[in-house]
Amino acid sequence: LTDSDNDNLPNSTEIVLGTDPNDPDSDNDGIRDDYEVLVGTSPSSAAQVPSFGDANEDGTTNATDATRILE
What we know:
3 helices; mainly alpha
């Protein structure tokens, strides 16, 4: 399966989700599409979990948490 943006979501899945198969962060919120699908937030809407927030209140931003999980 082709994954043009290397975000671990095949292009065919991105088309179904309404995300950009050429952009690993379709909603430009600082969190990759594959992580958002994994945790159940919307990869096409930055309004759900902004990257600058701290949803789990651990002292780091949501974007930092996402990067750590994907490493």
